[in-house]
Amino acid sequence: MVLTKEYRVCMPLTVEEYKIGQLYMIARHSLEQSAEGEGVEVVENRPCEDPVHGKGQYTEKHIHLSSRLPYWIQAICPRVFYVIEKSWNYYPYTLTEYTCSFIPKLNVLIKTKYEDNNGSTENCLELTEEELNARAVEYLDIAFDEVRAKHYKKEEDPKLFKSEKTNRGPLIEGWQKTDKPIMCSYKVVHASFEVWGLQTKVEDFIQREIWEILLLGHRQAFAWVDEWHGMTLEDVRAYERQKQAETNEKIHNTSGASDGDIY
Question: Which of 111, 135, 143, 222 could anchor a disulfide with 4, C-beta 3.0 to 4.6 Å?
Fold first, then answer.
């Protein structure tokens, strides 16, 4: 079975600005979510090229899980357990695939495109008629949808945050219709899992986790805007390399543990 969902997430940024903001957010978020023996290990990060999308960046990561999984998955998973993330970033288009070291029948494919609008494009990722009929569209509001309590930080709340550099925020009800600039992240998620007895639970878990990760990441990209606004691509790539090294060191800096995990 393949579940197809399209998430649309608006931010008070331009697509050009988010090219920097996305790289900064992912690098910092990965470090903050990692602990000893747990987190996101970057195993490859190199330029790539596609005949349609042009030049881009290929990244492979091992997302070490185990302790943050639901108990019913922990019960069947070995201690050495990770999800493989392969990403081809041809900004403003990206393709990301997730497979599992322990469950080979699990596959998640995410196609993303960014546009300077408020989520009004009906078929941004050019889905087929069959895919359009199968998809469910969900809009995420970075200001008024709530992250889990353990992820909430007052300084990262878009309802409260005011950017000193850009003078944007705080966000109020209906901000997607009134605020300028505005951009939207369109993400189509194909999730398939073919293991009898766990299929529904795992698919529900995947969608809940993707929803939370998207909401948290996009909130942070805006709330951290004063940290990355004004950076060049060279600046943020240097920052990315530094944080990746710190993250990998943190994951492996534990005796007796296998790799690690991320939520």
Answer: 135
Residue ranges, the chain, pLDDT below 70: 1-3, 35-38, 65-81, 101, 198, 253-263
How far apart CA 72 and CA 70 sit, in angstroms, is: 6
Give Dmax (Cα) for the chain.
53
Residue 262 covered by a domain: no
User: Distance between CA atoms of 99 and 86, rounded to whole angstroms?
Assistant: 9
Q: Does pTM surpass 0.85?
A: yes
226 within a domain of the structure (yes/no): yes
**Residue 214 sits in which domain range?**
3-250
Token pair 């189509």 is at which residue? 188
187/39 Cα distance (integer angstroms): 23
Tell me if residue 141 falls in helix, strand or coil. coil
What tens digit of pLDDT does each residue of 19-59 get? 999 999 999 988 887 765 667 888 999 999 999 999 999 99
Alpha helices in the chain (DSSP H): 15-32, 71-74, 129-134, 175-178, 199-223, 225-228, 233-252
CA atoms 63, 69, 74, 76: torsion sign: negative
Indicate which CATH number applies to the domain containing 159: 3.30.530.20
Evaluate whether residue 263 is within a structural domain. no
Q: How far apart are CA 170 and CA 13, in angstroms?
A: 13
| DSSP category for residue 146 | P
Number of domains composing the chain: 1
